[in-house]
Structure formats: structure tokens, C-alpha cells
């Protein structure tokens, strides 16, 4: 039997990268998944792949900053699949990378709302559904930026992602008596389209710089990070809550 048989999961930011890899892995381990992102074609392709591999999935296109989407995702999980056990609140954005003096309040709010407020809205509606199910696992995607490493031009991004760790810790205590575990993952540099090293026009030395930050001297594959999501979603981590799990290839401790 697969480790997530009869479980139901929500994955946000599922159209690419860590979110897509995690949705595929969770579904492959038996979970029914509700996936969301802004890109319809990519979501449709993800659902088709999950179904081709024998899994069950539903896709919802929407803006993760809107509370009505968070509520709708939970409603779908309950109505179509019977409940909610796992929520991977992964959607995020780098936002505007620029010195703080040049960062507009509009860009600040957009990054905070995309990365942090969306996770709060997700948790607000996910928690009651998990409690009704008898418990569950909630997971946030944070980052090393603003936690173990400071980088110029990332004030909004760092603040929003660091805030997710505080949110996870508060919720872990708040929901523990209801058997809901809450954790965050801290990926290192991951080889996705959103990585600045893969941006159009990025100089080749940018990728080398990113790779050399890690003790392992490479970036992660999204599938590697997804394994940490599976761990936190499953009973393998039944006594783990309130933690920020580093999946960073040694970036946080490397000085070589």
C-alpha cells in the first residue's frame, strides 16, 4: 500500500517547479490532489499526467492572494474527495528584486500577500477541514533567504518567507491538540524556471555562483525537494511539528 492511500491533499503553485513535482509525488503515493496556480495549460497537463499514472486530481486556476480561492480549494477537496488531510502551501513569488529605497509600497504588499498572506488564508480554511478529518499536515515553502542568508535587494521576499516560519510555529502550537501538524521546508537553490539563475538573459556565472553556495556544489532538482514534502505529509513525520526543515544541500552551513 502506498504511504498516502486514501489521503487528500491541496498543492498551491502546482504548475511548475517544486509544486508540480510535489503534486506528482503525493498523487503517486496514493493521495487525491487538488492543485492550483495561475496557468491553466500547465495545470491541465499536470492533471492529465496524474490521471495517466492512475491517480486522481482536480485543477483550479486562480489567484492565491484571494481568500475565495482558498475557501474554494478546501470545498472541492471535501466535496469531491471526502475531506482534507494535507495542504502544501507552496505558491510564491520572488517579487521585485531591488534596493529597499527603490521598492514601492505596491510591490511590497504584492510580495507579502503572495508569499505570506496567501499561506495564512490557506491555513484559515484548511485547519477546520483537517480537524474535522481527525488531523492533518500543513506545510509551507519558506527559503534560506532571510533565514540563514541575507541577500541585497530581497527585503520583501526575505520578510515574507521568514514570516512563514513564524506562522508555522504559531499554528503548530495552536493546532497541536487537534492533531494537525504544521511545518515549513527551507529549500536551497532549486533548478526551476523561477530561479534567478535561469531567468532570460542571466549571465552564465550566475548559475555557477548559485551552485557554489551549497556544500554539495549544485542546485536541487524539484523532485528532491518534493521528497521532503512527502516526508512531512506522511506518518513518517508523525512527531514532527513546528519545524523549519532545511533541504538546502548544506547551503546554510557552507563557507567554502
Give a short overview.
Helices cover 43% and strands 15% of the residues. With 256 residues, the protein is α/β, with parallel strands linked by helices. Helix 5 (155-175) links the parallel strand 5 and strand 6 (180-187).
Descriptive labels:
single chain; Rossmann fold; 7 helices; 256 residues; seven-stranded parallel beta sheet; alpha/beta
CA-based shape: globular
Strand order of the largest sheet: 3-2-1-4-5-6-7
- Chain-averaged pLDDT: 95
Number of DSSP strands? 7
Order of helices and strands: EHEHEHEHEHEHHE
Broad CATH class: Alpha Beta
CATH topology: Rossmann fold
Number of domains: 1
Distance from first to last alpha carbon: 43 Å
What structural class is derived from the secondary structure elements? alpha/beta
Summed up, the helix count is 7
pLDDT < 50 runs, ≥5 residues: none
Q: Beta-sheet strand percentage?
A: 5-15%
CATH architecture: 3-Layer(aba) Sandwich
Look at the structure and name the CATH superfamily: NAD(P)-binding Rossmann-like Domain
Instruction: Give the biggest sheet.
Output: 7 strands, parallel
The percentage helix is 40-55%
Radius of gyration: 17 Å
Amino acid at each position: 500500500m502506498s504511504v498516502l492511500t486514501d489521503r487528500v491533499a491541496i498543492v498551491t503553485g502546482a504548475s511548475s517547479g517544486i509544486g508540480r513535482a510535489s503534486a506528482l509525488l503525493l498523487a503517486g503515493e496514493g493521495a487525491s490532489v487538488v492543485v492550483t496556480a495561475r496557468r491553466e495549460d500547465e495545470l491541465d497537463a499536470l492533471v492529465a499526467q496524474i490521471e495517466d499514472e492512475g491517480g486522481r486530481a482536480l485543477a483550479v486556476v486562480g489567484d492565491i492572494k484571494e481568500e475565495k480561492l482558498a475557501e474554494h480549494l478546501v470545498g472541492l477537496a471535501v466535496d469531491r474527495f471526502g475531506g482534507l488531510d494535507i495542504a502544501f502551501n507552496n505558491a510564491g513569488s520572488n517579487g521585485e528584486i531591488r534596493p529597499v529605497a527603490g521598492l514601492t509600497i505596491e510591490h511590497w504588499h504584492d510580495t507579502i500577500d503572495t508569499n505570506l498572506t496567501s499561506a495564512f488564508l490557506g491555513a484559515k480554511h484548511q485547519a477546520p477541514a483537517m480537524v474535522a478529518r481527525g488531523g492533518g499536515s500543513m506545510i509551507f515553502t519558506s527559503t534560506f533567504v532571510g533565514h540563514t542568508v541575507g541577500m541585497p535587494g530581497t527585503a520583501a521576499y526575505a520578510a515574507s518567507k521568514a514570516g512563514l516560519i513564524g506562522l508555522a510555529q504559531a499554528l503548530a502550537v495552536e493546532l497541536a491538540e487537534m492533531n494537525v501538524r504544521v511545518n515549513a521546508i527551507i529549500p536551497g537553490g532549486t533548478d526551476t524556471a523561477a530561479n534567478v539563475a535561469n531567468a532570460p538573459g542571466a549571465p552564465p556565472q550566475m548559475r555557477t555562483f548559485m551552485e557554489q553556495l551549497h556544500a554539495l556544489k549544485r542546485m536541487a532538482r524539484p523532485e528532491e525537494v518534493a521528497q521532503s514534502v512527502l516526508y512531512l505529509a506522511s506518518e513518517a513525520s508523525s512527531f514532527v511539528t513546528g519545524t523549519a526543515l532545511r533541504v538546502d544541500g548544506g547551503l546554510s552551513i557552507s563557507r567554502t
